[in-house]
Design a protein that fits this description.
The chain is α/β, with parallel strands linked by helices. It has one domain (2-141): Dehydroquinase, class II (Rossmann fold). It has 5 helices and 5 strands, in the order βααβαβαββα.
Length: 143
């Protein structure tokens, strides 16, 4: 059974409240529940984490080297600023799928260029919370 670590970055704990016109009304708890339900159907083991702190996310990525076969990460605001998260991902040997709820390429200039995309196996954006499920389907199909 593949082990998948799902990481959510800063402010994603406010999903459903923060800028619902961009991110929708689905809460992070609902996203996590959907991922756990999909994991059962796909034969995956999933662990969901969220932190507003860059160092905590880096520690989780490093721990994933032993605890996970794949990572799904929504780095949120750290997507555009964190060389440290990018470097931590480089040390992970499994697939890493970057997920964004909104289509970052259709947003303002600051939100278009993710540093994490340079090291991710794949990027899913603009599908809303379903992007996490799409990422899980992709991981289930990867060898």
């Amino acid at each position: 059974m593949k082990r998948v670590m799902i990481l959510n970055g800063p402010n994603l704990n406010l999903l459903g409240v923060r800028e619902p016109h961009i991110y929708g009304m689905t809460t992070l708890a609902e996203v996590n529940a959907s991922c756990e339900e999909a994991a059962v159907k796909l034969g995956l083991e999933v662990a969901c984490h969220q932190s507003n702190h860059e160092g905590v996310l880096i520690d989780l990525i490093q721990a994933a080297r032993q605890d996970a076969d794949a990572i799904i990460i929504n780095p949120a605001g750290f997507s555009f600023t964190s060389v440290s998260i990018m470097d931590a991902i480089k040390a992970f040997e499994g697939p890493v799928l970057e997920v964004h709820i909104s289509n970052i390429h259709a947003r303002d200039e600051y939100h278009r260029h993710s540093k994490i995309s340079f090291v991710a196996t794949g990027v899913i954006c603009g599908l809303g919370p379903y992007g996490y499920i799409a990422a899980m389907h992709a991981i289930a199909q990867m060898k």
